[in-house]
Amino acid sequence: MSGGGMDWDKLRxxxxxxxxxxxxxxxxxxxxxQSAVSRQVGALEESLGVALFHxxxxxxxxxxxxxxLFRTAHDVFHKLAMAExxxxxxxxxxxxxxxxxxxVGLGSNWLTPRMREFVDNYPEIAVNLVxxxxxxxxxxxxxxxxxxxxxxTQPDLVQRRLLTVHYRSYASPDYxxxxxxxxxxxxxDKHRLIVYGESAPPPLADVNYLMTAGAERPRRAVLQVNNxxxxxxxxxxxxxxxxxxxxxxxxxxxxxxxxxxLKPPSFDTYFxxxxxxxxxxxxxxxxxxxxxxxxxxxF
Length: 299
Hints:
Blueprint lengths: L7 H13 L2 H8 L3 H15 L4 E4 L2 E4 L1 H26 L6 E7 L1 H8 L3 H7 L3 E7 L13 E4 L8 E15 L1 H7 L13 E4 L26 E3 L2 H9 L4 E5 L10 E3 L7 E9 L6 H16 L3
Parallel strand pairs: 3-4, 3-5, 7-8, 7-9
Antiparallel strand pairs: 1-2, 5-11, 6-9, 6-10, 6-11
Helix pairs in contact: 1-2, 1-3, 1-4, 2-3
């Protein structure tokens, strides 16, 4: 890529502009002025002899040629990021950044308290935990590895089953003292129910089973929360009865299981990473660490 045509700098700037959709936004992410960004893209267009963007009042739209170059550049930068990851990995001790994503509930309640041992063992690895209930795209390197709450459908991902999560219903002693303990599923009609408030993805669709178990007509929840940690805090405060995954239930025994005979859902979680990181030492040591921690867990 020598000569006046596609040098790396211009290509990087063009790629940033195409992603941001405007010279101003791209300038902010590149720490360049809008005019410098515009000038570099203009120079690239001139040397290639094609227009890469339609310039509209509302912003920039890629031309057909721009679209082609953007796809190729995207691919090249993706491959470079992969190569960089593999090169920094090939040194003896696992080192470099390891970006791990999982849900807010599992990540904050189960994984984070266990990370100290991993960091003590591998101080050269800089761990970046991205806790979100949105599924990040591992293929585009939004994260290196994920702990997923259901089996991934995306191709090119290496996956191994990690643990089975079971849901059970709980209430605080304070709540049960005030409202009594339900003896059968039908009794839930008379109780305050707290449920997970987003529409759960299909594999987790049964997490709100308290709403329907033994019900003749639909029940109403007293509180919906779109985050499992929020559900836990609400139960601890004595607000009502909720179903919680076993990794969220504190081991201090302060929450009381309710209706243990109900058949609550369970589902498998998976440890997942892109095929091209199969040889990564950082991922191998983290996978082994996870497997060990799961074996030590109570569930």
